[in-house]
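Narrative summary of target 7.
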Amino acid sequence: MSSEDSLLPLGKSLANAKGWDDFTRTLMLAGKALTPLPQPSRNDNTAVEGCESPVWLAFSHDEGCLMAFSPSKVIRGVLAVLLEKANSLTKQQRAAFDFESYLSQCQLERYLSQSRGNGIKSVIAKLKDI
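Modeled conformation, tokenized:
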């Protein structure tokens, strides 16, 4: 079984993207597919510290899943990929899952600047903690 077999649809589409333009377009489309965390839930309690762009992340009891939002189109795309995987796991699986390795399989790590990468580490820490 190849590592790509463990990728979910958004992750697979990024891993298979050809070149920078195709990858960027695919990432932007992934961000459009993200169901945004509702405005009233974007507050100090759901804010992710350490991100260059604002990011909010919370478990929505109404939707029964993790939800997030960022005004950054690139970060929304990354959040969509992370949440697609996170929402397919139980809380215990999510706490133990190697999200960094998953993003690497999706070819995302080479497209994230160091400052964005640090913010994504903060998102992953909060994902595992919720």
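The mean pLDDT is 90.
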